[in-house]
Amino acid sequence: MKYLIRHILSMLKIVILCLAMLSFAGESLAQILGNYSPLTISVGANISVSASAAPSNTSRISVFASGEFSGLLTGATTTGIVTITDAKPVGSYTISVVAFSSSGLSTTKTFTLIINNTECNDGRFNGNTNFPIIRPNLTGIAIGDFNGDNKQDLLAAHIGYNSVSIRLGNGSGGFTGSTEDVVSSHPYALAVGDFNRDGKQDFIVSNEGADLVAVRLGDGTGAFGSMPNVHVGSAPAIVAIADFNNDAIQDFAVANFQSNTVSICLGDGSGNFAVHTNVNVGNYPECVAISDFNRDGKQDFAVTNSGSQSVSIRLGNGLGGFTAMADVPVGYNPYNVVLADFNRDGNMDMAVTNYSSNTVSIRLGNGSGGFSGNNELPVPGGPYSIAIGNFNGDAFPDLAITNYFSNKVSIRLGDGAGGFYGNSQVIVGSYPVCVVAGDFNADKRQDIAVANYNDHSISVRLGTIGIPSISPVASNSPRCIGQSLQLFASGGSSYSWSGPNGFNSTDQNPEIQTATISHSGIYSLSLIDVNNCTATLSTIVRINPLPNVTFTLTQDSLCTFDPALTLGGGSPAGGTYSGPGVVGGNTFDPAVTGTGFYYLHYTYVDSNDCANSEFDKMNVVLCNSVELIENEQNIRFFPNPVKDNFSIDLSTFHGELIIYLIAANGREVRQYKCNDQKIQNVSATGLSPGTYTLRIQSKDQTKTAGLIKVE
Less CB within 10 Å around the terminal CB: N or C of the chain? Predict the structure, then answer.
């Protein structure tokens, strides 16, 4: 029994030890993926983003973006470096990096990517370079970075020779190399992604003559290896890449021209694809474009139907299946469709080239999968291919449209409200069939590359530095000290003013409410216009001093009965007088004001229209005594008005007298007694200014008079 117990205990120890070893092994294989810092770049840029730590226990990495991001994203399994190629459009995005272990575990890290609008650009292009492609009949073109140098490269499909040409960019707008990758019959359209999640860019190409899509995996040096072809519908045309079943693995959709279907092909994350479903659409579908039309986080698609003058909308269920929405009517023989938010309402809109109508249909999305509108942009010469770009630096989506028969590319600039303006045309090669927008010389301006069907070339046109659209700055100068100074500018999207006395402002039309002499001088404005072009302008401001004015009345006291006085004492001469009692500009009439103190002003305006004024005080007094009962004798007292003391002549009174001072409200404020005095001195100190009644009462008479007390 004891032996059995010891045996069981030994076995338990072994089990515990094994579990501990397995736990340690699991810990040693724990998956690690470092963090990524937020990033801000310009539209069309190429950049690599490093993680805070290299991944461990990671066999594959997928990278995805939120919203309408349409650039290329790859992640390196050994370093965790995320490569962003041809970042667009302008906006803010959440980038998700998903690391997969060999056992199927995954770890996700996110970071914010902000794409700013281009440098100064007004929608013009320069250059006339056409890069020759030896093989004939180009039909498709795509941008990528196939050798990992953060410079944009190009792929070109030529339907007449069953191959794809690879041209590596030099970062200055040039392309070199002569590499070709043989594919199947009649290669037509291209799309670039990372199908095996190794951080190196791959491509797919539809082969119209073989009813298949060829898959090529990049090795990071510009070379590619073959994967099994994906057999789809009849005459596959344009392809597009997305994740239709939300497994963080890239899938693709292709329009089958002769089958009237769109094939949905799901990827396995290793570069293999299988047809999941064929979705019925309209007649002769040409081009498929992918986005989230109803904002449910699941990928939907739009496809042009060249035989039924419509665009079919199909909403994804997140599992690779789709349901139909009402077709959207467009022009005749629609070929290409692109997606963007043209009116900035957060919903995806579409632009469709109508080859036989010579128009581009603009249809605005409602956020539920529906589209409306009847805006038809006239585009002559057989509009064929279309690309979204930001060609004039205003952050609104613009359009580049190939004119098949006129050998030009039409540029239409978006107004941010769903409309387009402008009619500039860029000359390219013969029969341009496909256009893409990128930044081939890394100058933060959008360029275009065009595949020319007839002359075996790729036309590259570089966006040029724009000319600022500005108006002269101005001010309400000259001004006078104390007045408001205002500066004026127009034609910009942001403003930065600087000037004397430490002045700075970001207002369009800043104001200094109380100007001084120190505000005189040169004011400079750095203005950024709607095309993101910067200009520096200036204006001169003069603040004039106020005239030196003095004013002392030549006579500052009048009686109520005095005649009107011609005023004087203001300097410099030529000014005007104002205030109570002033009539005719320079005359003071005491009869108008009555008794009291009045402030009169003298104002002088100099030759600079600057005004200054001074004031002085006029005193109007009641100069005569006021006898209220008939008597041949009057009270005589002086002075009147009185400030401190006054004297009364009592020579006409006899006997004992009482002197009263009575306020205007009838209250007695002072009383004095006197006997047989000829002159009586009376104190008015302490009395408030105003009018008083002086009453002198004797045994046989009483007399009263008015008295004015002043300060």
Answer: N
